[in-house]
Amino acid sequence: MGRNLRAALFAICALTVLAAGCAVQQDLVIAGDGGGTTDMAVDLDTMLYEYITDLLISIGGHPEDGDLFDTGELRTAFETHPELRPVSVQSPEPRRLELSLQFSDIERVFETPAAGAEDLFEIEENGAERTLRVVLTAEGVRQILSLSPLYGTMIGDALLPPDDGAMSADQYRDYLAWALEEYAEPGEAAERIGNARIEVRIRPEGEIVSQEGGDHAGDEVWFSIGLTELLTLREPRTYSVSYRTD
Questions:
Q1: DSSP output for 33-101
Q2: Using one digit for the tens of pLDDT, what is the confidence trace for 21-74?
Q3: Domain boundaries of the chain, sorted by first residue
């Protein structure tokens, strides 16, 4: 997977995971061969949008010339990878990004480039039964963030927790609330940051047998994690769904 595509994939997260002031919802439909489709919506909180806009202006940027999400650049990057086909890449309003993508192998799309780091998605086959695992580790999160064009920039440095793992989720929430306090009513920033989550809904093309770490209803499984919790992981977190394809 080329660096340009990885940067584009995680530029989506750059304005989300780099700052816990948003909502991310992703729907995945997984076929038996690991291919499928994904629909994602990213909504930036107003206070985060205003904060980033002010930072860009302070360093000579011109966010008023367009949305923060460069949909043309994202589409071009997606089109360079044989595993992905962009169906729709749009930003209907400055604070929202909507994506619809097709992929041929979810494991290959989200391979982690660092040696020894676990991949984000894994598929294990056992006869007609398949298990899709979502593996979150502190090292994996750092590796993913390092591919974002905002990693190591003023925005990233201002909003990311330290790499040493010393900051807890609550401490990180309080830090962000302090950084963003002038963009929200007193006490409101901490609450909005605490409510920011990544939610992934998975619908495999087969009968669901079991799941771990999420909620199951009908033919779908939901996985969810708070963004401050994700960025301050100390222990690995695994979510999985097993399903039959026959």
A1: TS-EEEEEEEEE-HHHHHHHHHHHHHTT--GGGS-SS-HHHHHHHHHT-TTEEEEEEEEEETTEEEEEE
A2: 556 677 878 776 778 888 888 887 888 788 877 777 776 665 555 556 778 877
A3: 3-244
